[in-house]
Amino acid sequence: MKFEYYNDTGRDISIHAATESSGITCDMSIIKPLETRTFIIPTDTYPWVKMWDHGELLGLCILVYAKKDEVN
């Protein structure tokens, strides 16, 4: 499955290293303003997304994590 993120923040966004370690494939370079980034999500998972703002020094960071449905 593909998940696309469009950067409309006007700021550069770094991608958290845990994005790749969760099994997602993507270009890990900085997402520039007005750029779209495609994340390839593993089969039988869905994207869980979190973004942090570390202020002017470190900027924005996004984590796209591959989650599985938990059956209770």
From TrEMBL:
This is Uncharacterized protein. It comes from Cohnella endophytica.
